[in-house]
Amino acid sequence: MKENADVPADRQGRDKRPYREPAMKENADIPADWPEKTTFGAWFRAVAAGAGDRAVLVYRDPARTITYRELDLLSDAIAKSIIAMGIEKGTHAALWAPNIQEWPAILLGCAKAGLPLLLVNTSFRSYDLEYCLNLVDVGILFLASGNGQPGEYISALYEACPGLEDSQPGKISSQKLPHLRTAVQIDDGNHRGILPWTAFLGQGEQVARTDLQARESSVRPEDRFIFLFTSGTTGWPKCITWTHERLIGTTFTLADGFGLAPGDVVCIPPPFFHLLGCGILLSALSSSCTVAPLERFNPQEMLRTIETFRVTHIFGVPSMFVSALNEYNRTRYNTASLRGGVVAGAVSPPAVVRAVMDILGAREFGICYGLSEVLATITRPSDPMECRTGSIGRPLRDTDIRIVHPLDGTDVRPGETGEILVRSPWMISGYYDKPDTIVAATDDDGFLHTGDLGFVDGDGYYHIAGRSRDLIIRGGENISPSEIEEFLLTHPAVMDAQVVGIKSEYYGEEPVAFVRTKPGQAVTALGLKQFCRRSIAIEKVPSTFFFVDQYPLTASGKVQKFRLREMAAELLSEQKR
Q1: Which of 65, 223, 322, 544 places its Cα 20 to 30 Å from the Cα of 510?
Q2: 304 near 292, Cβ under 8 Å?
Q3: Band of the pLDDT at 24, cuts 50, 70, 90?
């Protein structure tokens, strides 16, 4: 493979340039059409003026279709109602809802009114809700009735907020949630203490346009805009913060990497509260695309949506595509319109990426790598096929990457595994609850320690080897779980595999595997162990195989490996009794 001229030489070694503060126009690598420093409200108003009556959100229920112009007007109405209720700029808001029509309107309305917005995990319940609303000092909560089960969010809020039922809407008083004053039910309803959606929107009808303009003009690009929690795949999530400026930079970086253009139709199965879902949504809007979201992930609904709206780009985490491919093999759908998209959020086996290209027909499909804190790499349609399926690509625009030794921080050579460090002007502002943590995780040159292990090959393509905390050290040998997982997927009966390390009195740690088999296929633990022993090093052979129907997942579809470790310990303990 020839060296790619687009890959700077210093990307394979340490970049010694001083850390650059975020700047929109000062870097020559940034596209000419990159926006000046602005806020999300002003940014979307300009987008809507150009897109006009093009559909921005489409659902299989035609009545729920909304245009760019209508979305802009609805977000104006939300901002006016916030002003009318006397909610001051800087008050923290929260949004707890699946991928419904009102979700982006509330986000944009809060942007225009200057309310930093917490995106609440759709799988949270009362305890989680109380924790996150208190952590971020939320003053106004927008919530749906539930996520597939009507009333579940309302019940959880009443449990988390004693006294709500006895409060007047807009005047909540609760010792457990001392900052919360207003709760608005998005899909209407008649619940004591909670303001219905239509009544909320009616609050702003008398607010003058000039008052909204004055409020918008007080919002600054460097103001906090979004709070969201990391996925919690390794433990309790952290709350990260994005400013208007940095999230806009991330949005345009993604749109540039995805190659989105006006007229494209983008299907978004991941939840909007997650950076993956939110980032894809905002990137699609920045490119004047039409978005076809799934309220909740379902493989049949995903494929029906592709077929109905002639989707051109599909996005998701690996488990979503595994489920969709399994469903496609049972029932054929017309996916001929598919062209591109990416898998992100977790390491994806090359076979899955290739199947999306070959079976679903998304020939420009690829892989994007990043964290909730910063995005890093993407594969491109022009990359060689083996790099598009077997690597995480090359750095995104204006992004620098180092691979360093986990112990001493020195740069490793191409082909050697080390910790991945990323530097980008669009990195998060910090952690809301632990402001010193982001400082501790960032070196003097502005590189963020990701905790992920990987290497760069001789052609400048990056590869993931696993998470440093997932690394299994068996008898002094470092073992990457992803290497074993990819091998297990070569067995004809295995649909999915997840490998974790457990404590071992003799070796310190040893690998165990959780396996999902393909429908109609059967294999035993002994059979898999023999399969492994024939082809991989003995220290990589899982000591135990557990067969499961599903994995513990975050709401965004990522496998919670710390839960698998807990499950393994419990199951092995039971076997010893």
Answers
A1: 322
A2: no
A3: very low
**Which one of 449, 467, 485 terminates a domain?**
467
**Distance of alpha carbon 72 from alpha carbon 67, whole angstroms:** 9
CA 196 to chain CA centroid, Å, is 30
Same domain? 571 vs 488: yes
Q: How far apart are CA 176 and CA 489, in angstroms?
A: 48
E-state strands within 14-77: 55-57, 66-67
The C-alpha atoms of residue 267 and residue 282 are separated, in whole angstroms, by 13
- 235 lies in a domain? no
Q: What is the pLDDT of residues 266-321, one digit of tens each?
A: 999 999 998 889 999 999 999 999 999 999 999 999 999 999 999 999 999 888 89
Residues 221 and 334 in one domain: no
Nearest CA among 294, 479, 468 for reference residue 371:
468
Cβ-based neighbours of 50, under 8 Å, separated by 6 or more: 288
Number of residues written out for the chain: 577
Phi, psi dihedrals of residue 205, rounded to the nearest 5°: -60, -25
Question: What residue numbers bound the domain in which 479 lies?
Answer: 472-576
CA distances from 463 to 200, 377, 424, 477, 558 (A): 49, 10, 19, 20, 19
**Beta-strand pair 418-423/448-456:** antiparallel
* 91 and 184 housed in the same domain: yes
Asked whether residue 409 falls in the same domain as residue 493, the answer is no
Amino acid occupying residue 167: S
Tokens of 239: 């709350």
Is residue 367 domain-resident? yes
Shared domain for 149 and 47, answered yes or no, is yes
Look up residue 54 and give its two tokens: 């093009």
Please state the φ and ψ torsions of residue 116, each to the nearest 5 degrees.
-60, 140
**pLDDT tens for each residue of 178-192:** 999 999 999 878 899
Average pLDDT score over residue span 113-127: 91
Q: Whole-model pTM?
A: 0.80
Place of tokens 């039910």: 185
CATH (domain of 424): 3.40.50.12780
Could you tell me if 94 and 184 are in contact, meaning their C-beta atoms sit under 8 angstroms apart? no
Phi, psi angle pair for 261, to nearest 5°: -145, 155
Burial label for 303, CB within 10 Å (0-12, 13-18, 19+), is: buried
How many domains are there within the chain?
Answer: 3
Residue 469 has pLDDT above 80, yes or no: no
- DSSP states along 232-294: -SSSSPPEEEEEHHHHHHHHHHHHHHHT--TT-EEEE-S-TTSHHHHHHHHHHHHTT-EEEE-
Asked whether residue 284 is domain-assigned, the answer is no
Q: Among residues 179, 201, 227, which one ends one of the domains?
A: 227
| CA–CA distance, 458 with 473 (Å, rounded to integer) | 27
